Structure prediction request, 124 residues.
Amino acid sequence: QVQLVESGGRLVQAGGSLRLSCAGSGRTFSDYALGWFRQAPGKERELVAAISRSGGNTYYSAGSVKGRFTISRDNAKNTVYLQMDSLKPEDTAVYYCAARPYALGYKPTEYGYWGQGTQVTVSS
Prediction:
């Protein structure tokens, strides 16, 4: 098993930047593909970005986050990051990191390990 703890969420003005971090512990971190999801009030949880075990492959959801958000990982530090730039009020949500063994996943149901979430609020 792997345990995940997110940090870095806070209130930020539109146009600002944030970097979220997710620290992993337990099993070998590099055995897991990782994803960042978000869930806004009244909406379903959606994938924002995902990264392969080595970090060589990344995926970003179609739509508004592409070009503004960057996912990366440092397996030596057991940490995955989400750099968020040019933030918009519609980015307001609870952000979760998640892990699954081996291959990238694209749906919440494909991930078996989750952090507790960190709140990001973007004011206009």
